[in-house]
Design brief:
This protein is α/β, with parallel strands linked by helices. The protein is built from nine helices and ten strands. Strands 3-2-1-4-8-6-9 form a seven-stranded mixed β-sheet, with helices on both faces. It has a three-stranded mixed β-sheet with strand order 5-10-7.
């Protein structure tokens, strides 16, 4: 059997319809030899519910193309995205690994674009655009903010070095070349104590860059991401922005030789951010501005930088949210 060219890693938790869509997107890739594409699905549901989705996918596609994709199912019952991602990496047999969230669907040229950028740049990691599909009304007052928040867009040319943007990146829609740069802290690159609260991918990227890894942008490697209605709310975005603010501070403390003196600067910046957007929120209330929700979200992001300590963290993963 010929060794796989790339391993696509899809952690999943009780989202069968979205997982099936992601698998169909992988099967529809163009410009790559699908017989050399390994897809590793890691089921983080203790009940192992993803097996039925993979069985249905195999049954539907096997007759049409028996050589399509190499599907591997891994059951990781320990809760948390870190356990799932570490299990995916441990099961991947290719040096190049691609992370795809189970709520994302890739464009047909997605994988070929990631691989081409990796080969052309020699980067340790490559990232592509994410376009959100919001499950909310077109005139939803938060829609412009939600589109920017849940999406990923970099206004730089194909193949650009984006190492300076590491703090803005996550492992969704990304390729890591383990021959170019081994992942830090292998065999468990994702910190398991962050598996429920998040930030484990930010910490990994900080460590990768600290070890000399470069990041590159693949403008053509596009995916869309489904954003359900319950995430298109100010209450949900407040929690996420608070968590984002926390990550900005504590992720920097987990790299080798952290600059601890930066922490008070981040906290001061967070306090200023929270105060400024609180004022803008009040003015928005008085003027009945449709933009006031964005200021609430930014205010909570600032508070997260101030209250970044473990006692203020709360779980976001390992559940249906």
């Amino acid at each position: 059997m010929i060794a796989p060219l790339v391993s696509v890693l899809i952690p999943t938790y009780r989202r069968p319809a979205l997982l099936a869509r992601a698998l169909r997107g992988c099967a529809a890739q163009r410009g790559v030899d699908l017989g050399r594409v390994e897809v590793v699905v890691v089921d983080n549901d203790p009940d192992g519910s993803a097996a039925a989705t993979l069985d249905a996918f195999r049954a539907h596609h096997a007759d049409a193309n028996p050589g399509i994709l190499r599907l591997v199912l891994v059951h990781e019952p320990r809760p948390g995205i870190s356990h799932a991602r570490n299990a995916a990496l441990a099961s991947a047999t290719a040096a190049r690994v691609v992370f795809l969230d189970d709520d994302q669907c890739p464009a047909p040229e997605w994988l070929a674009a990631l691989l081409a950028t990796a080969s052309a740049t020699g980067a340790a990691a490559v990232f592509g655009p994410v376009g959100p599909e919001l499950d909310c009304a077109p005139d939803h007052p938060l829609r412009p903010f939600l589109t920017a928040y849940f999406g990923r867009a970099v206004t730089r040319p194909e193949g650009s070095d984006i190492t300076d943007l590491a703090a803005r990146m996550g492992t969704q829609n990304s390729l890591f070349d383990r021959d170019v740069q081994p992942l830090p802290c292998t065999p468990a690159p994702f910190d398991v104590d962050l598996g429920r609260v998040g930030g484990e991918d930010s910490v990994l990227l900080r460590r990768l860059v600290a070890a000399g890894g470069r990041l590159a942008w693949s403008a053509a490697a596009r995916v869309t991401e489904h954003v359900p209605a319950h995430r298109c709310t100010l209450a949900y975005v407040r929690r996420r922005r608070f968590r984002d603010g926390q990550i900005r501070v504590f992720a920097g403390l987990r790299v080798p030789r952290p600059r601890r003196w930066v922490v008070p600067l981040w906290m001061a910046a967070g306090l200023a951010q929270a105060g400024a957007h609180a004022v803008l929120w009040i003015l928005g209330l008085l003027r009945r501005s449709a933009d006031r929700g964005r200021h609430v979200a930014q205010m909570w992001g600032g508070l997260g930088k101030v209250l970044w300590m473990p006692g203020f963290r709360f779980p976001l993963y390992g559940g249906d949210g």
